[in-house]
Amino acid sequence: MDHKIEIRQYIADHQERYLEDLKDWLRIPSVSALPEHRDDMYRAADYAAKLLQRIGLEQVEVIPTPGHPLVYAEWLKAPGKPTVLFYGHYDVQPADPIELWKTPPFEPTIQNNNLYCRGVSDDKGQTMLVIKALETLLQVDGKLPVNVKVLIEGEEEIGSPSIGAYVKEHAERLACDTVFVCDSPMERADTPTIITGLRGMAYTEIEVRGAQRDLHSGLFGGVAPNPLHAIALIIAKLKDENDHIHIPGLYDKLQAPSDFDREFWDQDPLNLAEGFKQEMGLNALSGEPEYPPLERIGGRPSFDVHGIVGGFVDPGAKTVIPGVVTAKISMRLPPALNSKEVFALLEKAVKSYAPPNVEVTVRYLAGAEGMSVAQNSSSMTAAVIALKETFGNDPIFVRSGGTLPVAVIFQEVLNAPVVLTGFALPDDNLHAPNEKYSLDNFFKGIYTIARFLEERAIIAD
Amino acid sequence: MDHKIEIRQYIADHQERYLEDLKDWLRIPSVSALPEHRDDMYRAADYAAKLLQRIGLEQVEVIPTPGHPLVYAEWLKAPGKPTVLFYGHYDVQPADPIELWKTPPFEPTIQNNNLYCRGVSDDKGQTMLVIKALETLLQVDGKLPVNVKVLIEGEEEIGSPSIGAYVKEHAERLACDTVFVCDSPMERADTPTIITGLRGMAYTEIEVRGAQRDLHSGLFGGVAPNPLHAIALIIAKLKDENDHIHIPGLYDKLQAPSDFDREFWDQDPLNLAEGFKQEMGLNALSGEPEYPPLERIGGRPSFDVHGIVGGFVDPGAKTVIPGVVTAKISMRLPPALNSKEVFALLEKAVKSYAPPNVEVTVRYLAGAEGMSVAQNSSSMTAAVIALKETFGNDPIFVRSGGTLPVAVIFQEVLNAPVVLTGFALPDDNLHAPNEKYSLDNFFKGIYTIARFLEERAIIAD
What we know:
The structure is a homodimer of 461-residue chains. By secondary structure, the first copy, chain A, is an alpha+beta fold.
């Protein structure tokens, strides 16, 4: 039997069990952000470790960290062949707001050939399909075509605070020729997508302090500084109506885009901008009018307010002038912009924009750098072949607007090219209620990863 | 024995019991804003009713309303004498934030000759001293020098939604020559204060809607409208750095102040502006620089943001772009500005300021009109005499920046002059943790009210 057909057949014959293994993992509510799920984090890590052991990987280990544990496994019995390090994460976003879920968030439910569950698409489903690809090859061939290492973390949704130190301390153990990260969506259901760039991020809190205590707006309204008004003035100065950011120095370090990116952004051949509108339920996109929509996401810094803490936010009317408020603000940064440098510029701008009679403090809460990925590595070539074979269409190369701190760490510390791809779909409700994953794509993903490994084995570096 | 001394002596002899009656009332957590305290509202109303009955008032009634009940009582055995209607309220603000209280919020505690408890100064202490003044006169003289009606409500802290309808329907029962409202602070501990004006208020919510759901700032940051940014732009346009309000038409209807107010505001003879700074812990006051501080409070409209609802407000970093946010905003309005008219102007301005690609809705949540009080009524004269006798200094007449919807209702429906005064102090922490009331002022207040009634009986209308 043709080997490709054999692989397809094996996957087809074991669909039910493969799905059950995923469902059991999904039932563990491994929400990294919530302390009450600490035990679930260990359960989810153990589950992955046992599965990796069972399919035949070696040196399987649940590795404690200051936060949630890592899972490591390897199969290094292909001497002379390249080594691929797979990365995934078993932690998931909180299920809030739970009332908007149509099915229980931690009970996997199949509807219309989609599997609904928190974490199914981000990233347990996409991690499980890698494990199942390895299982398939080991079952069909008794071996893998290349050497494989697997590293699964439990803190991706909280900014990956622990994995960096581990990667740096164990660079030798993790040494590889390629890092493969299966944690991203396809831009369209018929078009596989490879990410060629990520934005970095600076997440900050701007605290504005007025009077030493909350005040009654009747007795003090007219002479009291209002920190909520002050934060509005500051935010309005930082980003104007046309979404231009007014942080002196910010745009100076931006680099001109490559011809490839320029053309893709200008032409938007898949009409992705239309998809964004539909997803948002809007007739028009926002953002800097003189840049094409894809460039606004892939090539320009963004500035978003996420929440304003302070004052009275319950139903009804209370006339308090709060003494102190905090705005949560993040900026996404193209690779040329360093998060700490941008923070320093932001802090300076905020202080210069603050109205008189309030005290302003700017805090750096979290940050990560952006990155660019070369499109011409052997691993990229193998990925393109495998993706095209599965989906019938060439993959597109896009710069994502998102941030993946661990990808930057891999690229820098392991000095290996990173392949960023995945089989989630734009409407999979990542980080939102009713997260889902296409069952078709789950099984297509297994096949793609198996084929990627085979192609990677035969392409010269 | 001199009659004044007799009154003083009676109060002095019964201090302990008078205080115990207040403490028992304070222990009932009659928080009108919180549904879980509904039973407490009835307990607090019953308590007042029983006390009024016990001291000898008649027709005592706990009157149900669509919200919390009213308490009514009367003593009408002074034919040919004027009738004074006393108003107070038994409901209190929520105790939040409880962790900032140094003593339990609903356990009255005496420290340094102050009584600490939620509601002690606003307004149970100030209502109780009226009851105790009536009790004192009835005990000492066996009668009151004028006819008296008492109306106590349980919804003052939530905007007095029910009392208006009752007053209108029972205008005959409540008919009187004077309304006396004991619910305000003295500007300084040595200076009794009579309020000659109140600001009205328009309390609104501005809702800004962007995308149909919350979005991930990595994937959409750059093309998604951010309602928190939009609300900041709108707020910044509505009030500028110099605290000028940009609502076309707003300032047009303001009236020139009287010479009396002009002089008081310009001269600030008690240096109240300094006290505001100290209370706020600030070196400077905010507000329109070209108007004196007292005018900013007493004669100018204010614009304050109280809270912004939506997005992520928990500790940590979450990169959500909320689909919808709401800003709670109120304006305090000098008597010449009608709350509904100002709301219409505000709504128009907000819509014209809204950036493209968001939908804006402005809601009128609550409102009340301002009022001016004549300084030359017989009741005012009686109040001045009584206050000066107690405190040694002439009372000052000030326009308050606050709002008291019920005072406007009394003035309009009952067509009777309203005396607004009280014995709270500027540092009594109204609406804040560690609310207190001076025990000296509690007993001075009892004496003052008793003397006011005697003076009112002998001054011709």
